[in-house]
Automatic annotation (TrEMBL):
CDD domains linked: PTP-MTM-like
InterPro entries associated with the record: GRAM (IPR004182), Myotubularin (IPR030564), Myotubularin-like_Pase_dom (IPR010569), PH-like_dom_sf (IPR011993), Prot-tyrosine_phosphatase-like (IPR029021), Tyr_Pase_AS (IPR016130)
Pfam short name (any one): Myotub-related
GO biological process: phosphatidylinositol dephosphorylation
Annotated coiled-coil segments of the chain: 648-675
Family membership: Belongs to the protein-tyrosine phosphatase family. Non-receptor class myotubularin subfamily.
GO CC terms, sorted: cytoplasm
The protein's name in its UniProt record: phosphatidylinositol-3,5-bisphosphate 3-phosphatase
Bias kind Low complexity: ranges: 481-505
Length: 828
């Protein structure tokens, strides 16, 4: 492979099939083995590194195929660092010790990948600089989601989908909103308890809330404007989910501004919270109970009081109980994920240093076979704290769902700002309470409502671009990336190699890749919680774990505009929806290719089995690692679906193929049956026509015989035209029924007055037609003719006989013109 010391021309070395739509390469570096080690150290694979406007792309040297482990979207990169490692050598030649120049790339999707480059070249610097430009674009519009041409949005506007979800919650699902009704303000519907308000239509009341809010019907918009001033960032209590049967609601807000002494109050806020507790349904007396769930530890809530925040006092809110869930803040979640990622990289089968955990340094990471030491090594998974945090979120959500489902209680959930832990708890509790949210369409509605519309700061928490500026001011962005510095797994206590710190000249470039303090995997943690529920209730969810992984990858990749910016207000001002592709449409197109057999669908889904709330007991809330996401890079074989699920999916595929073959065979059989029925009908029709013809022929034969007998009774010889051999007709020989007087064929009436005329020729004994009529009469019929053959005409007797014959002939001519029927010859 040719070696390039600078940025090459990737367009000449990549094919269109290797690049996504709208993707173009900005830097490409060919890298070959360095003293036996390959470019992609994780899997010892040599190849070419490309940096495009969308991703870091690695192509294998031999097959020129894209290597998934070494290919990562730029937005998914949390940080990247230059690393220099000295090769082991004797002390006497330390000044000439060769070094390995590595580039470490840390992803938000749990992977750590390392590339090695040729010493003495500028390959690493070229890729590093390209990553700096690609991961920190100067303008929002430089992101790949805006430069790609796949921005045809046939999907509805997010505002329309939000209002339609409100209609469903109000029991008006048959009504569908449109962008026209929203622009005209005609979407404000209500039922007996709740209504849709447009008080925040211009985002003036609360910049991080959606344009439409679901509030108690008894509260006016003027009261909402007063109540918002008592909550942090004006995020007043509003309804996120409601139960039409019981009247219970699940509401959300930010912390109240009670102050250090917790003596500040607001009548408007107390009335709004009290309105959430409507009277119980029929058959139950009194008002429902209200729980105020503070997601923070109690000490944190008290500490926030020093900055004007705090928590409610139960004495100020009617029939209220306040509980604290003790869920840690965003900084604890970020550090926990870092420890989990390091643990997986250290103990996985494919680590970033290219060595299995079983072989690294003689197996010291597994205690060199000592069971107690091995247990201590594995216990570092628990030290990461990630599973404990997931369990806390699951337990809090299950508790909320149980109170709403079993007690018909109303619930108000908040943390500090009401957009991190609050969103996790409210959306997960809604998932447990409402079976609709456990479908693919319902999951989309849930994410768009509680995460996007209610202002989870994706720009800050997921490290995506943020919106700033207005009017003609350029849209700048700031990237909030990952966590503190990650200790490289390449260096261990007993490792023969050591990592040399970067030189002073390299430090400024590397420091630009360090993360912001606002980054935190809050949304990733919530999706992890959903995967835990999917594991516990495999029959309750329409979507599969594969769907969750693909969905999370799309969110982290910044390939679509749905999850850009920090709020609905920012996305509207930036025009994100109109200018970028839609994530939901992309996932729907993926599923459309295979229908219900696609991997996004859960093959075990049975909606009738769990058609109500899911209320997991505390004993069941024991989370495990999410294999399909956490282990897919470090332990790829273990990350695959279980053998049972894989076998079932394979059997399902075969079953679908057999079902298609069966449907095709049944279709062909129906066509053949239809053709046979058509031919049978035609044959029956032909036989009916034939039988009718035979019957008519028999009638004619009978009539002819009757006429012959009538004429012969007059003393004349008659010759009638010959008829067909009716008795030997094929229909007669086949035993087909002949029509009777009542029916002809299949139910057709027998017409006794069929107009059938029979021509009869009266001939003399002599067939000679010569001579006139008188001669023929005299020769054949005259009784007065003499024995010698002489004619006595015109004697008187001869004239009298002639007159009688003429009269008889006239009668016969008239008789010949009549229709002859069998009834003439039947006995009376």
């Amino acid at each position: 492979m040719a070696t390039s010391n600078s940025i090459g021309e990737p367009e000449d070395r990549t094919t269109e099939s290797e690049l996504a739509e709208g993707e173009n390469a900005s830097a490409a570096v060919d890298c070959t083995n360095i003293d036996g080690y390959s470019v992609l150290v994780n899997i010892d694979e040599a190849g070419t590194v490309f940096v495009t406007n969308f991703r870091l792309l690695f192509l294998s040297e031999g097959s020129r195929e894209v290597i998934a482990l070494g290919t990562i979207p730029l937005a998914t990169i949390e940080k990247f660092n230059k690393i220099v490692i000295k090769q082991p050598s004797g002390t006497w030649q330390s000044e000439k010790t060769p070094t390995r120049r590595l580039l470490q790339v840390v992803g938000k999707d749990m992977r750590i990948i390392i590339f090695a480059f040729r010493p003495g070249t500028k390959q690493r610097s070229a890729v590093f600089d390209a990553l700096l430009r690609g991961t920190k674009p100067a303008r929002l519009w430089d992101l790949y989601c805006f430069t790609s041409s796949s921005s045809n949005n046939s999907n509805t506007n997010p505002k329309v989908r939000l209002v339609n979800e409100y209609y469903r919650l109000l029991g008006m699902g048959s009504i569908q909103s449109s962008i026209g009704t929203i622009e005209d303000g005609l979407f404000k519907l209500s039922n007996d308890l709740w209504r849709i308000s447009d008080v925040n239509a211009s985002y003036n009341m609360c910049t991080t809330y959606p344009f439409a809010l679901l509030v108690p019907k008894a509260i006016k918009d003027t009261d909402l404007l007063k109540a918002c001033t008592f909550r942090a960032r004006c995020r007043l209590p509003v309804i996120s989910w409601c139960d039409r049967r019981t009247g219970a609601v699940l509401a959300r807000s930010s912390q109240p501004l009670v102050g250090l002494m917790m003596n500040m109050r607001s009548n408007a806020d107390e009335n709004l919270v009290g309105a959430l507790c409507t009277r119980l349904s029929k058959g139950r007396e009194g008002r429902r109970k209200l729980y105020i769930a503070d997601a923070r530890p109690r000490k944190n809530a008290l500490a926030n009081g020093a900055m004007g925040g705090g928590s409610e006092s139960s004495s100020n809110y009617f029939q209220c109980e306040i509980v604290f869930f003790g869920i840690d803040n965003i900084h604890a979640m970020r550090e926990s994920l870092v420890r989990l990622r390091d643990y997986l990289d250290m103990h996985g089968t494919k680590s970033s240093d290219g060595m299995s955990s079983f072989l690294r340094n003689g197996g010291w990471t597994w205690g060199r076979g000592n069971l107690s030491s091995m247990s201590a090594s594995v216990s570092t998974l628990g030290d990461s704290g990630w599973l404990i945090h997931v369990q806390n979120v699951l337990a809090g959500s299950a508790w909320i769902a149980a109170r709403v489902a079993l007690e018909s209680a109303s619930m108000l959930v908040h943390c500090s700002d009401g957009w991190d832990r609050t969103t996790q708890l409210v959306s997960l509790a809604s998932l447990l309470l409402d079976p609709y949210y456990r479908t693919i369409n319902g999951f989309q509605a849930l994410v768009e409502k509680d995460w996007l519309a209610f202002g989870h700061p994706f720009s800050d928490r997921a490290g995506m671009p943020s919106f700033s500026g207005s009017g003609s001011i350029p849209l700048e962005l700031s990237r909030h990336s990952s966590s503190p510095n990650i200790t490289s797994s390449l260096s261990t206590p007993s490792s023969p190699s050591s990592i040399r710190p970067l030189s002073t000249s390299q430090a400024p470039a590397s420091s630009n890749t360090q993360p912001s303090n606002n980054y935190s995997p809050i949304f990733l943690q919530w999706v992890d919680c959903v995967s835990q529920l999917l594991r516990m209730y495999p029959f309750a969810f329409e979507f599969s774990s594969v769907f969750l992984v693909d969905f999370l990858d799309c969110v982290l990749s910044c390939r679509f505009g749905n999850f850009l910016c920090n709020s609905e207000n920012e996305r509207v001002k930036a025009g994100v929806f109109e200018a970028s592709a839609c994530l939901w449409m992309h996932l729907a197109e993926m599923r459309a290719s295979e229908g219900n057999s696609h991997a996004h669908y859960n093959m075990f889904y049975n909606p009738s089995k769990h058609d109500g709330p899911l209320l997991p007991p505390a004993a069941a809330l024991a989370p495990t690692l999410w294999p399909q996401f956490h282990l897919r890079w470090s332990c790829p074989s273990e990350a695959q679906s279980s053998q049972v699920e894989a076998h079932c999916r394979n059997m399902m595929g075969k079953y679908n193929e057999l079902q298609k073959a069966k449907d095709l065979a049944e279709s062909n059989a129906r066509e053949v049956t239809t053709a046979v029925e058509s031919l049978t009908a035609s044959l029956l029709n032909e036989s009916q026509v034939s039988c009718s013809a035979v019957a008519l022929a028999r009638k004619a034969n009978i009539e002819n015989a009757g006429i012959k007998r009538a004429i012969e009774s007059l003393g004349y010889k008659v010759r009638v035209s010959d008829t067909s051999d009716i008795e030997n007709h094929p229909a007669k020989q086949m035993g087909m029924p002949f029509p009777t007087r009542k029916t002809v064929g299949s139910g057709e009436p027998y017409d006794e007055k069929t107009d059938l005329s029979v021509s009869i020729t009266v001939t003399a004994d002599n067939d000679d037609d010569s001579g006139n009529l008188n001669d023929r009469i005299c020769e054949s019929l005259c009784p007065l003719r003499s024995e010698d053959g002489g004619c006595k005409w015109p004697s008187a007797g001869c004239a009298r006989l002639r007159s009688q014959f003429i009269g008889l002939k006239a009668n016969y001519d008239a008789f010949d013109r009549l229709s002859i029927y069998d009834s003439y010859f039947q006995p009376e």
